[in-house]
Amino acid sequence: MSNSNFLSDIQTLRDRARQHIEAGAVTAGYSADRDTVLKLLNESLATEIICVLRYRRHHFMAKGIHSPSVADEFLVHSNEEQGHADRIAERIVQLGGEPNFSPEGLTTRSHAEYIEAGSLTDMIKENLVAERIAIDSYSEIIRYLGDKDPTSRRMFEEILAVEEEHADELADLLTGLSESDVKH
Ligand SMILES: [Fe+2]
Ligand SMILES: [Fe+2]
């Protein structure tokens, strides 16, 4: 007997957990479309990897134009994007999928682009554009997931908050640069 109208009774929960035990964390109560969620997760993984690479490239190239503080910021972001990629890959495995790390088609799977950019200002702009793309696509994914997969949704919400910080920092760097241009 259940004490509540909306919770499954304990026996039902126990019986369900014993079925399809090989599915690990994915239970019969998982109400999202798993294939769609895995596709979204793999696209997000590609996005994060592209962001790791772009920030890495910019980190080393910005060093060359004597901008140590911006170069340092790019490295910090690159490492944080790597952390996001790892979390997403882990979630894919939890859901019984396989993280796609293949270089083949990486730029096509990714929402954000890999753009080398020449000047320091262009690098900051390209990174800001990429962050804004990530912010938009993660917001959409969060809305799509709704209550269907709260664990993936929470992960995306946490990642989204960091992407918003990144965008904010880049916008500040851009303002700082254009102000120093004015003083010249
Ligand atoms: Fe990220
Ligand atoms: Fe970011």
What descriptive keywords fit this protein?
Ferritin, mainly alpha, 6 helices, 184 residues, binds fe (ii) ion, elongated
Protein described:
The chain contains 6 helices and no strands. The radius of gyration is 20 Å and the shape is elongated. The termini are far apart. With 184 residues, the protein is mostly helical. The model has no long low-confidence stretch (mean pLDDT 90). Residues 48, 51, 81, 84, 134, 159, 163 line the site of one fe (ii) ion. One fe (ii) ion binds at residues 48, 51, 81, 84, 134, 159, 163.
Q: Taking all residues together, what is the mean pLDDT?
A: 90
Q: Termini distance? A: 77 Å
Number of helices: 6
How many beta-strand elements?
0
Largest sheet: none
CATH homologous superfamily identity: Ferritin, core subunit, four-helix bundle
Under the CATH scheme, which class? Mainly Alpha
Uncertain residue ranges: none
Can I get a quick summary?
One of its GO terms (cellular component) is cytosol. With 184 residues, this protein is mainly alpha-helical. The chain is 71% helix and 0% strand.
SSE blueprint and pairings:
Blueprint: H1 10-18, H2 34-64, H3 68-94, H4 106-109, H5 120-145, H6 150-183
Bound molecules: fe (ii) ion (FE2) (2 copies).
Organism: Noviherbaspirillum cavernae
GO biological process, one term: iron ion transport
Binding site for Fe cation: 48, 84, 131, 163, 166
